[in-house]
Write the structure tokens for this entry.
Amino acid sequence: MKRSKVSVKKQTAGILGEFGLQLGLYGQLMRINKPVGIWLLLWPTLWGLWVASNGKPDEWVFTVFVLGVIVMRSAGCVINDFADRHYDGKVARTSSRPLVTGAISPSEALVLFAALALIAVGLVLTLDRYTQMLAIGAAVLTVAYPFCKRFFVAPQLILGAAFGWSIPMAFAAQSGAVPRIAWLMWIAVLVWAVIYDTMYAMADREDDRKLGIRSTAILFGQADVFIISVLQFVLLVTLFLSGEVASLGMWFRLSLLVVALLMLYQYSLIRTREPKQCFQAFLNNQYIGATIFAGTVLSYTFST
């Protein structure tokens, strides 16, 4: 009898261990262990919520958008790895991904993507009809991006459009309208995404070229560092104009000065085009997003 109980405990522990391992693999597929993508999507979402609400976002809208960012970023990673499953094994940096190693099957990945999509639908259904209609655009862009890398020379534009789509959605959810400033901020996020994802692509440029994957790093060629610098200037101008239209004032302008310093640091990293340095520059962009959000919050907090 005692042996039987011990055996049951061991079997239970084994099942729980396998279940935990599988959850860990799903977490890897969703990149929960690499949250930089969440931050890059969350920061502009928060910019939009704060500006749309004059610094006082609705609690439920805030909750839905934060959860939506996590869910949609996870779903985007899953569908991206599904689309790249025949390519990732040929790149050292991505060769250990669960779909490449066979730890997760393609059908499992699609089921996981569908489950995440359903959660996202459930969240957006709690918002108004206008926001729900805009969410369809976000879904289309999320699914389109991984596949357009095969034929579109600048897939980073699609990524930027997707990452910035939370801006008009935030305005719609908060105010029931999408004014011009929302689209100005959307353009800023699009430009920003092209900047940091080009840095990301510079780290994989040679592998991507061999595999026939398109990117702005390949498109820009030896002009990549110069074009990124120009785009960073455009980003600063667009953000400055957004701040002026929203009357954000001194604190926001000071945050842009910090952003400019971060951009100079990123330039120092990418100018040699060394892959690890380019990837480090990509990661540094999360601090740009945080700085702009801090400037926005401070502006509303201490506005007179």
User: Anything to note?
Assistant: The chain is about 80% helix and 0% strand. The chain has a mean pLDDT of 91. The two ends are 76 Å apart (CA to CA).
